[in-house]
Fold this protein.
Amino acid sequence: MRLLRELRILLPFIVLIALWWAIKVGAQVSDTMLVAPPAVWDAFVHLVTHGILAEYAASSLYLIGVAALISFGIGVPLGFAVGANRYAARALEPFLRFFQGISGIAWLPLAILWFGFTHTTTLVIVIYTLVVPIVFNTMVGVRAIPENYVLALQSLGAGRLRIVRDVYLPGALPSIVVGTRLGMGYGWRALIASEMLVRQGGLGDLIFGARTFNQIDRIMVGMIAIGCLYIVVDRLLVQPVESMTLARWGLLRQ
Amino acid sequence: MATDKIAVSGFRHVFQTEAGPVQATGTIDLTIQPGEFVTLVGPSGCGKTTLLKAIAGFIQPSEGTILCDGKPIKGPGRDRGVVFQELAILPWRTVRRNIGHGLEIAGASKAERDKTVARLIDLMSLTGFEDRYPHELSGGMKQRVAVARTWAADPEIILMDEPFAAVDAMTRLTLQEELARLCAATGKTVFFITHSVEEAIFLADRVLVMTRRPGTIKAELAVPRRNAGGRDWDSFTADPEMRDIAEKVMHLVHAERV
């Protein structure tokens, strides 16, 4: 049964690879446009054995990790501050939506002018991309907490700090998780985009550099690594929090 | 002279809305004595919840004063417990931790907390559900937890705002009997709001009837206690005096239909 379930997850990938191979062979696509799966596998083995993939991937993972920590530290308190104040929330909603519209990538020209072609530029872009959904969803989460929870606790003698700890934090957690999850998705994409322009390491740098020498096999290894690592990050960071708390409380919104 | 547990005098409330002021209640005077179970019955929108919220300290009255043990009410506090109509127990706490929440806030020792929680779990027929989360419970059980949580904090007076309105009719009868037993066992002062005449009389030592909006109190009727253990529906419905009181209250309430 377990094997069957895992096969079900892999099935679409297998179909995709088969299709890719069939097109490559069937339509006789030239190697300058598309390479066959075995060539990509060879490139993968090469990049792994020479430690190249690990180095570039480590750079990406390090930056997304640092960005996630900083964004969480900024975004959650800010979301609380805004969400706890009805007037601030109303006033800031269009403001936040406005910046939701300006993607992190759109900030790249300015960031490069300010910080140069450095990791700082990439970090700023990714933090910006992560912070907006975290602030927004934390705010929404705080505002969605039923007033009765707060009133009931006040009648039990709870002070402000106690209400934040026992009501607002756990009450907003589902939304914070949603915001972080969205943010990580956006942030990961912004990271790759920024790395392609900044060219200071990372998987974005790897695939953009490979383009210069028409190394299609390397580009595809890089792309597959980007997708796989995102799944790993999501599985390792977000899903454990969800099953530890939200599912147990019956709050998971399906 | 003993002070009233609650003394409301000249209370009147007006809500400020964007469309202008809305008068929520007429002028209301009432007192509640220590250990008394007072129910307030009235048509929806008459302002009964507004009055309860003012006693709880959630809103400041536009006019009049509300005293608790002779002292003016400044805001919510642990001396006045509240049971809401909509569920207000926390979904991220187990039954045990919800019921013990008030004691936890008060800084009670774990031993004391466990003892009180165990007693209330027993009184409210929640045995076996101590470590469940609210989403695993039926609506009636959740409301039992809410009642137990308020009782566990041991407030001076308990304010209940149509706590059983969202529960199915069969469960409601059981909950009402359990509440009657709980009150008999603990001797708490209770102020209970409802729009059900039978519920108001079944639970009360004294029933207050409100007019339609803007509500004022138009009548009050004493309901004699029959036995020390709290009422049950079988003997209540068989009691001719209770039937008389019910008929009187029914007439009073029907005159206020909107």
Remarks:
- Residues 1-33 of chain A form one domain.
- The mean pLDDT of chain A is 90.
- Chain A has ten helices and no strands.
- The two ends of chain A are 24 Å apart (CA to CA).
